[in-house]
Amino acid sequence: MRYGTEHGSLKWTDEILRYLNIWLVFLGAAVGVKRGVHMQVEFFLERFFAEKTRRRVKRGTLAIILLCLGLLIVSGTQKVLNYRSVQIQATTMSIAWFYLAIPVGCLMMAVDYALILVYGEHPFLKARGEKI
User: Measured between alpha carbons, how far is 101 from 80 in angstroms, rounded to an integer?
Assistant: First the structure.
């Protein structure tokens, strides 16, 4: 558009792409939770603790993660409701659509972490034959 027309580039593309990147990050994080590819530091657990203690620490870690995701879901939902009448600069679209990525992505992660907490691993991933 910059070189093909006399009007120059489209002004809304930069802003929309920046906000769509937020959706990409949160949805990608949810996929990462399901596949078990988020970074974990297990060196000290494996080296210094017994298996029973390791399971307890991992369950406690999952509970803390679920608590944090719950807080993000609540605060993200409040942000969506507070900013639903605010429009982004380049278009007439509400910025709430982009803030909605926070509670939606965190909810998806929370469901996956809850399944892992209950079953010890993600049950749907194993059903398809994929490794965690």
Answer: 9
Q: Any bridge partners for residue 94, and if so which? A: 87
Instruction: Please answer whether residues 96 and 62 qualify as being in contact, where contact means their C-beta atoms are separated by less than 8 angstroms.
Output: no
C-alpha–C-alpha distance, residues 29 and 110, integer Å: 11
Structure tokens at 68: 């944090």
**Rounded to whole angstroms, what are the CA distances from 78 to 29, 56, 85, 91?**
21, 33, 13, 23
Q: What's the pLDDT tens digit per position in 91-104?
A: 788 899 999 999 99
**DSSP labels, 64-129:** HHHHHHHHHHHHHHHHHHHTTTPBPSSSS-BTHHHHTHHHHHHHHHHHHHHHHHHHSS-HHHHHTT
Asked whether the predicted pLDDT for residue 117 surpasses 80, the reply is yes
16-54 tens-digit pLDDT: 888 899 999 999 999 999 888 887 777 777 888 888 888
* Domain segments of the chain as ranges: 12-127
